[in-house]
Every structure is written in C-alpha cells, then in structure tokens.
Design a protein that fits this description.
The protein has 647 residues and is an alpha/beta fold. Helices cover 33% and strands 24% of the residues. The relative contact order is 0.10.
Length: 647
C-alpha cells in the first residue's frame, strides 16, 4: 500500500480518506442533492427543474439528467472565463516540431471558436446537424468541436489514424453533411495524407457530404474540389469574432463517438450536453486535484474519449490550462514527454500504460536526464497498469513524490468512474482502488446475482445512473439496451471482469467479451476479422488477444487461405493481409502476429473454439483442455507446432 503524500493532501480538494468516505456516503444517500450541487459548477441559462428522471418500459432503458435546464457547452468552456481569465492560457499547443509551443488565451479561444462557428453556419450547419471532424492534434480541432457545441451541431470526431473506409463508415452512419479535415497531419516527424484519405471517404458516400473544410497544417498543396472544398483560414477571415451561443436543453446531443463492440459495426455512442459536461468537470477537478495555477497535460488524442473529456471539455469547463500534444512519446527520443514537462512546467500529467511501458524499456536515463520537478500528479488511463510499471512510474518519473491516479472508465461512461483521489486514497499498484462519489460498482455472477463482500470476483456492473452516462447508440437504441442492459437487467454491464480485494479495492482483470484493449483503445475482434475476410486471400479468419510487452494486449490473427492463395509464399501473404487491415481499419488494428493455418479448432456444430486460440496465442500449450471433442483435433496440433516454430 502506497500512502498518501502529506504535501499533496495539505492542499487537496479532498484531503483525507475520511473526507472521501463522507462525500461518497452523501452521494449515494442523497444522489439528487449531491448531483444538483455538482451541476452548479456550470452556468445555466435556465436552471434545471429536476435532477434525474427515468422512464421504464419493457425492453427499453431511458434516463435523463437536469431536465428543464438550458445551457451551452462552449459558453461554459470559453465565454464565462473571459471576464476573469481572459489573458490566462486556455490551451498550450505542443507541436510535433520539438520545442515549439503556441499559447492560446481564453480570449483568443473565444474569438477562434466564434469564427469557426460562423464558418459552419455559413455552410448551412444548424442545430442538430452532424459535423464529422478528421483532424490531427492541432488547435483547429479544439476550435471546431467547440464551434459545433456553440451552434448546437453534433460533432463526430474520427481519430486521424483511421483509414478511408473507417472514416466513410462513420460519416455514413452519422449522416454528416460537413467534414472538417486537414491537408496533412504531422506525427513523429512523419506526414499523414489526411485530405487524400478524406477524398476517398467522401467520394464513397455519394452526395452526403456537401462541404469539406480543410485546415492547412503543412505547406503541401492538395487538390480542392470546386463547390465542395474550402480552406478554413480563407473562410474564417471573412467571419466576425462573435457568434451567439445556442440555448441547448440538458438532454440535447453534444457529440457522437464511435467505439468498437463485439460485432463488426462500430457503435456511435451518444453523449448529451448537461449531464456529460457536469460529470467531465466534476471528475476532472476531483481526480486530478486541479487548482488555478496548474499546467495540466493529458497527452492522449482527442480522437478518443479521453481527449474529449480530459483535454477539452473537463479542463476548459474548469478554467484550467490544458495541453494539446501533437507528437509521440518516442519522437525524437524517449525523453519527449519529460522535456515537455520541463518546458511548460507541467504539474499534472495523464497518459496510457502503453506509453509508459515503451519508455521504461529504453532505460531510466531518458527520464532522469530531465528535471520533472514541477510534477505533482501522474495519471494513467485506458487499461490496467502492471504493478511493476506503476512502481517505475512512481519512483523514476515521479521521483517518489507524486501521487498516481490509475483511472478506470469507458467511452460510454463519459468520465472516470473508479480512481484514487490524490490527497485521500492510499494506493495499491495495479488497482483502480475505489469508486468516485456517485458511482456504485457491483460484481455480478454469471447468473446475475450480486456478489457480496470482499475478496471476490465477478462481472463489473454499475448500479443506477450518473450524469455522464451515454444515453444511446446513434440511430439504434435497441442495440444500446441489448449491449449494456439486457444480460443483467437493472445494471449497466461494463464488459470488464473485476476482482474486489479484501480491502474493497477494485482490480480490472480483463474483458468478458470479444473486444480487445490494444494500447488503451478498444477494437472488436469481429471488426478485424471482417477486414481480413474482405480480402480475396482469406476464406476464414479468427482474431484473439495475445500478451504484448508494450501494448498490454496485442492482436493475433489466424487465417485460412482461399485455394488460389494457398501455394503463395507465406511471408508475402502475411504482409498483404496486414496491409489489408491497415487500409480497412487503420494502423492501430494491424495484427501483431498473423498465422496462415490449415483450419480452425471447431466443435462439430461449427463453433470456433476461441478459448483454444487464445491459449495458443499466449503460448500456454499445456493448458488447452480437452480437444478430443473437436471436429478435427489434428488442426490444433498443427497450429501449435507452427506457433512454436514462429511461422
């Protein structure tokens, strides 16, 4: 158990475990009073009439927060700070180019957001319209998402590493009439052809996209289609610096964000305005113990939910200074993060265990050559952190003086759910520790019974609702109910397995469905399988997770070739199929290992035994269980032999 640091507890918003427990008790005994108080951290044009409502009918789940209230997310993140914090830095853009930074004040942020909002309005965007954003980590990404919020448009941000086909699918599903992209992106010294990718995606959706707005990030010229494509800087130069904020109902949609599920089609998770913003602001302040003078750096990408909640909406709603990091942790070398910390005086730093593992493997000297004396709090997100890596993060990066907050949450939860509080919670390396106020985690067995007490395991579920909870899947509420509420009625099913130890601390032990957590990002196995089978070389494919030293979970694919490809060189086939996945989904989904196999282990009814494939991928050859009931047990022996041989 790592005790709380006295120096951190002295100035913390919650400074003792007793204060935490009192706050938690209040939140579950009087949730309406607790959340009504938290909602007051925002400016409301019209105050809410009720805190929470729930509609129950057979086969559906509907809940809402802060009914009757009207507000605007951009107003809360920008305008209300200008009077007292106009000259304070809102965003520090840490460019891909080493040592280059741009400071954007709250006053300038308001002007830029208003200009982009007026550009969108000039191109016909109105309240409720969907705008797809496919941008790198540049200020225009923040300007555009806040501009959408300002005029009531629903933004759908697509990670700039996704392929044209993935972008096309998301544009189509959301029905986006406008796409905002860049001529190119920069990442780790490499250029990314975003406009070319966008052209492929937009051409594939017919006339759906009426306007493509292009940001100039580099000097590279790109083809512009007359009547459709416009440059943002040219359009913005013609617009006013002011734009009225649309009055939004608390339950009006704020954004759609696509996340992988256990079926091939990504889910468009929908978050609404009042509850989401309240929860993002509340959790950002509480978990990171944010104060007025902090320099806060979440080095995630805004293409993922971490960036939505903890680079933009949470920090800006709290009037904080937030960093947008364009580069990678290893460019130009493994000291990049820590040079960023020293250059900017970062006090709070939030990243993924994947990045920490990658840096640790290269040696302590990349860290210890920097000062990092400004750091107070270190955070992790996206996946459980190995206890040994936690200790290294604490001892080497934090010099033993920083609090570590290992946060558990999901795209669907909108914000952090289980996490230490820096000034209050003693930590156990590798444990997400205790739930935040207002959150009631429960462990449920496979029959749906709550598992009581401590030192137990089960399916992690959440009892009750919370303001940041997703409201639906865009255009498919039945799927929302089926995925999250049908297996265990009355609970939100997270899809994670969990252990609650003897002290009531929570330990996330992995997924219970066919979703992989790769470098902190969720990828559906069915999604990768579909990409493989779409190639003429593949007759059948099965994808499972495998242990990976850096990513935590890697992707292991088993492919049966079509007759025309069976005799081709195996290495060539593997290269072709990895390229196929990169082109269909994106580089993040590329299999770490791909095997061409003669068959797959199936029951006599034709079901693929993924349990066996997972064991082989983990090299647990002696723990395959009984394979005699398979249709063809010899297939397993051949796969094992090839796996051992590195084929």
């Amino acid at each position: 158990m790592e005790p709380v640091k006295d120096a951190i507890a002295k100035r913390a918003h919650v400074g003792t475990i007793g204060q935490y427990r009192a706050l938690y008790a209040q939140s579950v005994e009087d949730p309406a009073g607790f959340w009504a108080k938290q909602a007051k951290r925002l400016d409301w044009f019209v105050d809410p009439l009720v805190v929470r409502e729930e509609e129950e009918a057979e086969g559906t789940v509907d809940f809402s927060w802060f009914g009757g209230g009207k507000l605007n997310a951009a107003w809360n993140c920008v305008d209300r700070h200008v009077a007292e914090r106009g000259d304070k830095t809102a965003i520090i853009w840490a460019k891909d180019e080493v040592g280059e930074y741009e400071h954007i004040s709250y006053r300038r942020l308001k002007q830029e957001v208003c200009r982009v909002a007026n550009v969108l309005r000039a191109h016909g965007v109105r309240k409720g319209d969907r705008v797809c954003i496919y941008l790198p980590m540049i200020p225009e990404l923040a300007f555009t998402m806040l501009a959408c919020a300002r005029i009531g448009a629903i933004h759908s941000i697509v990670f700039a590493g996704f392929s044209a086909e993935s972008l096309k699918d998301r544009i189509e599903d959301a029905g986006a009439k406008v796409l905002v992209t860049a001529n190119e992106g920069l990442r780790g010294g490499k250029t990314i052809p975003l406009k070319a990718t966008s052209d492929k995606a937009v051409d594939a959706v017919g006339d759906l996209v009426e306007t493509m707005i292009v940001v100039r990030r580099t000097e590279t010229e790109v083809p512009m289609k007359a009547g459709r494509d416009v440059w943002l800087h040219e359009e913005a130069a013609r617009q006013r610096l002011s734009c009225p904020a649309e009055w939004m109902d608390a339950e009006d949609p704020l954004y759609i964000l696509y996340t992988s599920g256990s079926t091939g089609k990504p889910k468009g998770v929908l978050h609404t305005t009042g509850g989401y913003l309240t929860y993002a602001a509340f959790t950002h302040e509480l978990v990171f113990d944010v104060h007025e003078d902090d320099i806060y750096a979440c080095v995630a990408d805004i293409g993922w939910v971490t960036g939505h909640s903890y680079i933009i909406y949470g920090p800006l709603a709290n009037g904080a200074t937030t960093v947008m990091f364009e580069s990678t942790p290893l460019y130009p070398d493994a000291s990049r993060y820590w040079r960023l910390v020293d250059d900017l005086g970062v006090t709070i730093f939030y990243t993924a265990p994947t990045a920490i593992r990658a840096i640790e493997r290269l040696g302590d000297e990349w860290v210890t050559k920097t000062s990092r004396k400004s750091l107070r709090i270190l955070g992790t997100v996206g996946e459980p952190i190995n206890p040994g890596v936690w200790q290294w993060y604490h001892d080497v990066v934090g010099n033993g003086k920083c609090a570590i907050v290992d946060t558990w949450w999901q795209t669907e939860t909108g914000g952090i759910m289980i996490s230490p509080l820096p000034g209050a919670t003693p930590c156990k390396p590798g444990s997400a520790t205790l739930p935040l106020p207002g959150i009631q985690p429960v462990l449920v067995d496979d029959e749906g019974n709550e598992v009581e007490g401590n030192d137990v395991r089960g399916n992690l579920c959440i009892k009750g609702s919370w303001p940041g909870q997703a409201r639906t899947i865009w255009g498919d509420h039945a799927r929302f109910v089926d995925v999250y509420f049908t297996r265990f009625p009355g609970y939100y099913l997270t899809g994670d397995a969990c252990r609650r130890d003897e002290d009531g601390y929570y330990w996330i032990t992995g997924r219970i469905d066919d979703v992989l957590n790769v470098s902190g990002h969720r990828l559906g196995t069915a999604e990768v399988e579909s990409a493989l089978v779409a190639h003429q070389a593949v007759a059948e494919a099965a994808v499972v997770g495998m242990p990976h030293d850096v990513k935590g979970t890697g992707i292991h694919a088993y492919c049966i070739c079509t007759p025309a490809w069976e005799e081709k060189d195996r290495a060539e086939v593997i290269d072709v199929l990895k390229k196929q996945v990169r082109e269909v989904i994106g580089a993040i989904a590329t299999p770490d290992r791909l095997m061409v196999v003669p068959g797959l282990p199936k029951t006599r009814s034709g079901k693929i035994m993924r349990r066996i494939l997972r064991k082989i991928a983990a090299a647990e050859y002696d723990d395959l269980g009984d394979i005699t009931t398979l249709a063809d047990p010899s297939v397993v022996e051949k796969i094992v032999d090839d796996h051992k041989a590195g084929k």
